[in-house]
Amino acid sequence: MKVTKAQAQANRAHVVETASTLFRERGYDGVGVADLMAAAGFTHGGFYKQFRSKADLMAESAACGIAQTAALTAGVDMSEVVRLYLSREHRDARATGCTMAALGGDAARQPEAVRATFATGIESLLAALGREGPSVDGADSGQARTRSLDILAHAVGAIVMSRACPDDSPLADEILAVCREAILASLPSATASAPPADI
User: Fold this and answer.
1) Is the pLDDT score of 10 beyond 90?
2) Which domains does the chain possess?
3) Mean of the pLDDT values across residues 16-45?
4) Of 26, 83, 156, 193, which shows the fewest CB atoms inside 10 Å?
5) According to the 3-state scheme, what is the secondary structure of the chain?
6) CB 56 within 8 A of CB 113
C-alpha cells in the first residue's frame, strides 16, 4: 500500500521524536540506526528513504528536543525555570530532559551540522530565557542576554556534573542544590530558600 505524503511526514516526525528521546537517554554513539528504527516501529531499510545520514537525524532530533525545552521555558518565571531545571526529577529524566545537558558533550565531537544545530538551539534558549529580562529589572538587552547566558551555562553544567556522579551520591544532590541556590540568589526577585518544584 502506498504511503500518503501526510503519513510519510507523520512517520518522519515520529522517527525524529523517537531519536530525540533515545539519543538523550543513550548518547549518539549508544543508538544504532537499526535499533532506532525498530524503536520507532519501522524497518531499518526505511531510514534512508527519510534521512540522508545518521548525522542528519542527529541534527534534526537535537533541534526537536531543544525546541521542546525552549517551549517549556517561554513565559515561565525565571526562578521557576531554575527550580524545575535544577531538580532531581529533571536530572534523572535523561530521555525527556534538556537536550543541551544530555548531548552537549557528544555534540562537540559530531559533524558541523550537528554543532550548528546546537548553536542555533543555544540562541533559541537564550531568547526564551531573556524574554522577561528587561521588564523584570530594567536591564538592557545586552545585560539580559549576558544574564541569560550565565544562567543557561551554569544550569546545564550543574546537570552534567550531577549526572556524572552515581545516582544516589550526596555530591550529585549537593551540586544541584548549590547551583540552584546560587542562580536564584542572583535573580532580582529571587527567593532562594523556596523548595524546588516537581518537574
Assistant:
1) yes
2) 5-186 (1.10.357.10)
3) 95
4) 193
5) CCCCHHHHHHHHHHHHHHHHHHHHHHCHHHCCHHHHHHHHCCCHHHHHHHCCCHHHHHHHHHHHHHHHHHHHHCCCCHHHHHHHHCCHHHHHCCCCCCHHHHHHHHHCCCCHHHHHHHHHHHHHHHHHHHCCHHHHHCCCHHHHHHHHHHHHHHHHHHHHHHHHCCCCCHHHHHHHHHHHHHHHHHCCCCCCCCCCCCC
6) yes
